[in-house]
Amino acid sequence: MNKEFSVGAIIFRKEKEQVLFLLIYSGRNRKWGFPKGHIELGEGEKDAALREVKEETGIANLRFVGGFREEDVYQTVSKRLPYKGSVIEKHSIYFLSETKTKDIVVDTKEITDYKWLGIIDAEKLLVFDSLKRILRKSEVFVHAKTPKNAETTT
After folding, report:
1. Closest to 57 measured CA to CA, from 28, 33, 93
2. Which CATH number goes with the domain that contains 129?
3. What is the mean pLDDT of residues 2-20?
């Protein structure tokens, strides 16, 4: 079976004592999820995640939380060449990232809305159980990690 790879980020920010997660709404897919997109030729996973997040949200100041990399694997029909219309095995890889940015600018071609939400409200908007599982895992990770385990990007 043919495979496609996407990469993105579970982005959070802290507001007082609360951890808020960024969910974006795909107008094309009509679903809430996390910023992600296809890896370009010669691009590393984290570089692709940074590029996709910036393209879809305008956020450029991400701090990767070390040790968190989750992969969601599922079958779907490809919407991209060369496999367009064929069933493929899709690999969506997510990194956990922190930002201080509150107001974002969504890419209105693909993303039509966004929300910063606590874990309970965020889970309610996610349709796929695999994304809910990754979100829950990221919340546990946020509370377990300290700033010394972070990589900063600008």
Report:
1. 33
2. 3.90.79.10
3. 94
Q: How far apart are CA 127 and CA 48, in angstroms?
A: 24
Checking if the pLDDT of 153 tops 80, the result is: no
In the predicted structure, residue 152 carries a pLDDT above the cut 70: no
Taking the model in full, what pTM does it have? 0.89
The domain in which residue 120 lies consists of: 3-152
Residue 27: what are its φ and ψ, rounded to 5°? Answer: -65, -30
3-class secondary structure, 142: helix
**Which run of H or E residues covers position 45?**
helix 45-57
Write out pLDDT tens, residues 86-111: 999 999 999 999 999 998 888 778 88
Token pair recorded at residue 127: 């349709």
Q: What total of structural domains would you count in the chain?
A: 1
**Ranges assigned E (strand) in the chain:** 3-15, 18-26, 31-33, 36-38, 63-77, 87-98, 111-117, 150-152
- To 10 degrees, the CA torsion angle through 107, 113, 118, 119? -80
Residue 82's φ and ψ, nearest 5 degrees, are -90, 0
